[in-house]
Amino acid sequence: MKKLIIEARINEYQSREANPHVPWLPDEIARDAEACQAEGASIIHFHGRHADGSPDHDFLTYEKTIRAIRSQSNTMINPTLGYVTLDADAEERLSNVVALSKDPETRPEFAPMDMGSVNVDWYNPEEPGYRTKGLIYKNGTDTLEYFAQNIAAHQMKHYLVCWNVSFIRQTLAFMDMGLLTGPLPFLIVLTDGTMLAGHPGTEAGLDAHLAFIPPDRQLEWIVSNFNGNLFQLTEKVIREGGHIAIGLGDYPYTELGQPSNADLVRKVREQAETLGREVATVDEAKEMLGVG
Ligand code: ZN
């Protein structure tokens, strides 16, 4: 079986309330990236954060973070475009990664494209009630076309993100139109707990996606669980040939105490080794994903 790619999703917009090990600042992110790579991660996904944890969309923060990461490790880099915290037009959303791409030293290997739109309000099942009511993660077809063309034009690789089956259908349409070409990383975002935007983080939730991913399209499927414990699915993913994206950005994993991102990566690697599946190095993962 092909080797397992592990991606570390180290921070998103998570607080440090439940687990203080969420990295926010460039040097913290770089140290975490190095530690995660040492345990087997070959891709780092990060969001720029201010010292108080709020979203930081400044180009200089991204530039500083990538330089810091690369001074310590050679992991592939997958920065955010800002998720719902950057409600802007397509050009502005892509402007940081386009600027970063001008210098090979700061050019990320990937720029993400979420292949559709979805309500991402926070729900409290205990009340029950919604804590937010207007958060729409908007990725219009015109925006996605702009992203597809400009990510390729600036020598980065598309990193596709999928919240439900309609996102797969739009991905296949873009492949048919020649806007996207495999091999490509394809992140399946399952969601649990206070987030209802994706399929549940269960076998049935994942299988519903997999039923619609044609094996001949070279979509390297990767599984994450936003707001849920991914370990309920890691054995299935490892056995079925998928890849794993895990980290404190998605979930604080307090069932395990207060683990670091590197602890989570190590646990995935050890499980893969126990199940007889080797973990890909950065160079091996690059080859599998057609990077560089
Ligand atoms: Zn993210």
Quickly give the CATH architecture: Alpha-Beta Barrel
Tally of domains: 1
N- to C-terminal distance: 23 Å
- What's the mean pLDDT score? 97
Q: How many β-strand runs?
A: 12
Question: SSE string, helix = H, strand = E?
Answer: EHEHEHEEEEEHEHEHEHEHH
Radius of gyration: 17 Å
Bound molecules: zinc ion
Looking at the structure, what is the overall shape?
Answer: globular
Total count of helical runs of at least 4 residues: 9
Let me know the CATH homologous superfamily: Aldolase class I
Strand order of the largest sheet: 3-2-1-12-11-10-9-4
Can you tell me the CATH class? Alpha Beta
The biggest sheet amounts to: 8 strands, parallel
| Unreliable residue runs | none
Give the helix proportion (percent range). 25-40%
Instruction: Report the CATH topology name.
Output: TIM Barrel
Helix/strand/pairing class, anyone?
alpha/beta
Q: Assess the beta-strand content as a share of residues.
A: 15-25%
How are the SSEs placed, and which strands pair?
Layout: E1 6-9, H1 26-39, E2 41-46, H2 59-72, E3 76-79, H3 90-101, E4 110-114, E5 118-119, E6 123-124, E7 129-130, E8 136-137, H4 141-153, E9 157-162, H5 165-176, E10 184-191, H6 203-210, E11 219-226, H7 234-240, E12 243-246, H8 261-274, H9 282-289
Parallel strand pairs: 1-2, 1-12, 2-3, 4-9, 9-10, 10-11, 11-12
Antiparallel strand pairs: 5-8, 6-7
Residues 12, 45, 47, 80, 83 line the site of zinc ion (ZN).
